[in-house]
Amino acid sequence: MSEVVVPAAWVADRRDEVTLVDVRDAWEFDGIGHVPGAVNVPFDSFRAGEHAVDGETGEAGMLPGGEGFADLMGEAGITDEDHVVAYDDHHGVFAARLLVTAELYGHDPAKLHLLDGDFSAWQRERETTSEATAVDPATYEATDPTAIETPLIDADAVAAAADDPDAVVVDTREDWEYEEGHIPGAVRLDWRELVDDETRGLKSRAEMEEVLEARGITPEKRIVLYCNTARRISHTYTVLRHLGYPDLQFYEGSLTEWEEEGRPLETGS
């Protein structure tokens, strides 16, 4: 079984072996409650510029800067050796962004896990608490993404992929956004097409594979992902890793950077 996206039972059986990270706002974590033992790293704290140090605002796209990210994780008692299980209350899209950010800064992806479902799904059947989690500050080592092999690619590589028959450029935004303007040659896959609204987790493997195959997003292809600000592609990237796709690329700059550089857009469906 893939341990990229993990069910609640998997987490419950390993509570002493993993670090649970809740990326909701602090008022939700404290006021509504959280999974027992979880620490809080709010989503806005690891967006570009939100936790920058000495003017460092990120190496690429929406990354927050390695030093700031390391401080943030260390303050929450997380080390780069921990098995991290992240969750939110939005079907995992914000939690996936934390995991991808950690991977891009050198955290072993085999130690990064997304809770299948979200806080609301957990709360339906399992214990929650409003008690503060004791945190011992730790040292988190973040590596410069340009110094290691990562799935990050730049706009030129995306443009080349659009003309490559062995690659598929995937736009993970909503239909109306895609129709207003997308990278030429990109196929549309709203990230939520892989999510079950009732369970708040992923659809079955068979259902997801049917959706992906219909768009030509298959494991033998090189898959290049983008959205607007790299949040939604984080979820799709994590799901495709879970499904065993071997060749995934991540355009961190996404459409925000693409447009800033004056590159061409296609419109329509």
TrEMBL record:
Pfam families: Rhodanese
GO function term, MF aspect, one: thiosulfate-cyanide sulfurtransferase activity
Keywords: Repeat, Transferase
Top-rank lineage group of the source organism: Archaea
InterPro entries given in the database record: Rhodanese-like_dom, Rhodanese-like_dom_sf, Thiosulfate_sulfurtransferase, Thiosulphate_STrfase_CS
SUPFAM superfamilies xref list: Rhodanese/Cell cycle control phosphatase (SSF52821)
Domain Rhodanese positions: 14-131, 163-267
Protein name as catalogued: Sulfurtransferase
Naturally occurring in which organism (per UniProt): Halorientalis pallida
